[in-house]
Batch of 2 targets.
Target 1
Amino acid sequence: MKHSPPVEKKATPSGGWRAWVSWFLLLLFAAEITAAIFVRHKDKTFAVSQFAKLPLIFEGRVQPMDSLARNSLLQIRGITAVPLEGNGANGAWGAWEDLRAQGGELSERRWHQFAKHPRKLKPADWLLEVFCSPRQADDRYIFVINHPDLRSLLKLEGGVENSALHFYRFNDLKDQLGELRDEAERAGKLDASQRNPFDRAVLQLNNAFGLYFRLKNTVQPEDSKDFRQEIDDYLAAAAQARAAVRERQTKGEKLDDDEPGVAWAKCSWKPRAPGCLSRRDCWPGLLPRIARATSPGSTGCSASIARCWRSRGWARTWPKASANRSSTNCSPSSAACMSIWRRSCWSCFIGRT
């Protein structure tokens, strides 16, 4: 019986094209991680990346501005980004202010809209806006309110929807703060075990409002148009008042502290008004306190930063003064401001008296 010779099988490369695809995806993933870690993106206008690294003292520990921004957004919005664009009526896409003018419901990008890349405020950008331009920050959809009874209490309509979450602006809520405060006071008196979902939603929103109010009035009073100029004007007026008082003293006149202008010229400082929430009732003694110092210090530099942020006067690098600084009237120099902030580990006096 004849046996046929064994047939030799041709060796095939292991994996074939699948191995090449796997290696390509692995290298692509590694490149993305490397770029995210080592590649630095330059700031196009204001030096936000350097602002995010500035230290501050919050709740007893030193942390960068970026940490304050992220933690605040998580507490207020639940997400560490603030979209500036989304969906409107009839499939329209654009900025929220343009879509509101057209009417209809607003929603953030849907999961299937892969081609849409909405502009967003990152945490440090948002915190700068809250510090320096509160009126603009009031128009951002950051307050999340999902309980239907709470939305009914506050008479809320519209807003932005995202996966059953509803976001609203401060401007949508500001006229109903009295109702919210009354409900928060009632819910606060209850034991935690007795609070229902509505009570918890009320307290959460009230805490978010409290944090937002304090952030808006940290660097400057929220209704200040140019706090740096107000400081400069006050210092100039205080210097003139001091000179006038000294001249009267050299003439031997007896001065009474109750006399109009005398106590002010001596820059007597009063503590911050207790229980204040916002605006200038939180700042009654700040300017006299500044006037007693030889220079405005970190408060004056903070006001300068707010002025320059609004005018976008410092581009790309913060430690170096802008070549066109005179056109934006940014003073004192940004280098001096950075030095004061870092040396004093500038304290964000949220919740302090």
Target 2
Amino acid sequence: MPKEYVKEYFAFGEWHTITEWSRITGISRTTIYNRLDRLPDDGTFEDVLEPVKKPRIFDIGGEKHTLSEWCKITGIPWNRMHTRVNRLKPGDSYEKLIADVFTTPEYEAFGEKHTISEWSEITEISKATLYVRLRNKKEGETFESILAPVRKQVLYEAHGKAHTLTEWSRITRIGKGKLIYRVKNTPEGTPFEEILNSFGDNNHNRGTSSLMRFAPPIPMDDIKRKYENDPESKFRWMCFSSYLRKNPFCREFLRKRQNGLCPVCRKPLGDEKTWMHFLDYDCLCTFTNSEKQLISISYPSKRDQNRRERVPNCEMCMLKKPEQFEKCMSKYILIHGPCNELIFKETHAD
């Protein structure tokens, strides 16, 4: 990540990055990130920097190890071991923790016995697929039938990327049914890139009717009036509609989610100017009206190269509240500047 986009966090009257705070406090960066993930909404960054507690030691059979070390020795999953610790009664021996060491079942096929993980590596079938097949196995059916090859989905290549029709539909916002129809009714051998371009030309000049699907259902002024009487809601709406758009993390998230393509013209999003376009103005940020929950980032302009802006910590939101983060991001798409101008002209035409 470029240096100007490295986030800084405020505590004890100072601003520092995660790496710098790790160096100052002696707390590992991994621990700081984990604590940020579990930080409550009313918590501050100073809470994250509390001293690290030493791990608990368990003496079993004369050997002393931490809980994580005992998990590695016995093969018992950490969650199961932690549950057993919580269920220990006063006076119980720690030996109860490893009374029945967890063993992974093996399944026989083609004269060999292996675990699900090993069969997954051998057959190149994902463990999730094998577990689903095992759960749905009919009575009398052998394990060999579960190892039947997985039917591979057809990939279509365009703009240097290969995806299934479902993935292309999500990336380009073209209905999957339309893509299937166009593929079936296009002469064999036609590049898939031409099929995508057939929904619009190569010069950001799409038909006006198709642009209307990118127009927000309710005008911005109506949404603004909806929240202007409540200071808290007004601040949260401003975070969503204005401050969030200055956060480079959100812009890069949209670029990756769209696989580097503009949903309007289906052309790659290069180094040219891009625009975070609204699909819907009606949404509130999860952060409340508190400066402690905003982060400071470098946001240089032509006049002031040292300019800084305060934006919502969207990366923390994605970790702590992924459903709300996805809700916010579903209201935006990243498009070319000329595409945004075309949408504006069409949606604001008299």
